[in-house]
Amino acid sequence: MIIKKYHSLNEPVMSRVLELENVCNDYDRLKGSVFLDTSLNFNQAIPGIFLLYDCQTLISMLSMFIPSHLEVEISAMTRPEYRQNGYFTALLEQAVEELRSHNIPEILFVCEKPSDVGKDVLLNHLQASYEHTEYYMSIPRGGQYNLGKQRLSLTKATLQDLEILIQLSSEIFEDNYDDAKSLIQNCLNSQTREQYLVTVDDKPMGIASVNHLAVEEASIFGLGILSEYRGNGYGQELLKLILKNLWNRGKQQVTLEVDSKNDRAFRLYQGMGFRIELAYDFYRKQVAEFC
């Protein structure tokens, strides 16, 4: 048994991980994908992917999405015929060791909702506590949106906008300064992501980000407006502006994720035509609870 740690994956290793994902999804009748992009992790010195090999066979993998210094989202999978042999536990021990050394106190385990095996491990073996569900939603290329009288201005941000973006993110999402700075800088420096600044009457009031997953597909994330502007239709107008921009650039499908407890956002996305594709349950456990 060999465990290898990665900060990012090259193409050959990525192919092996995706092959493992396909095998596990087929066996468990799941549809989701493990998050393998470590570029938004707040500390790039922390390895984000752990792979366990038996000789040359990739047996198990664990990935960590670390957007802040407060918590990490962990996803994992093990080849079906090798399960119940302690391989996931071995990977998790390595991950917890990294988290301890960087003083990250909490873990959110991510489990696709239909996965009975995953739920059993998290609830009975790890005794993690269910926290919430997130919906992965998508919308295909559709009709033209009537913006009416456009009030908002959507501008692609640059590093010159960094401080105002950090301020907005801190107020909208209650991020601390360093975490907001890391996430936004990583987005601005990314080759596939775009950061947007939203203004009304030349006053900054919102932010949004887009990840170009493929030539015809993009995802929206980090979308929000200041609390004092909510309830005036600005959220819908902002979403329409982003979708119009993406359709004009040839995208055929746009995705996003939303917390099931965020009823306002969920209703907005449904009203715009987004439909639920997948649901993920999140389970919390303190790093200090691991022996």
TrEMBL record:
Keyword Hydrolase assigned: yes
Record-linked Gene3D superfamilies: 3.40.630.30
UniProt cross-references to Pfam families, sorted A to Z: Acetyltransf_1
Keyword Hydrolase in annotation: yes
An annotated GO BP: proteolysis
Keywords from the UniProt entry: Acyltransferase, Hydrolase, Protease, Transferase
Record PROSITE patterns: GNAT
EC number: 2.3.1.-
Protein name as annotated: Protease synthase and sporulation negative regulatory protein PAI 1
